[in-house]
Specification:
2 helices, rod-shaped
């Protein structure tokens, strides 16, 4: 496809929020690991 330019749509807000959630949960898992619990257990 010579001369054809494909533009990529930016990520959706929902996608970006989910990515932030995954990073936060990962860090929280590391913080509560010494207590023997998971992030899910800590937040419930």
């Amino acid at each position: 496809m010579v001369g054809t330019q494909v533009t990529k749509a930016p990520p959706s807000l929902l996608y970006m929020v989910k990515q932030v959630e995954l990073v936060v949960r990962s860090h929280l898992d590391e913080l509560v690991k010494p207590a023997g619990i998971t992030a899910l257990q800590y937040t419930s």
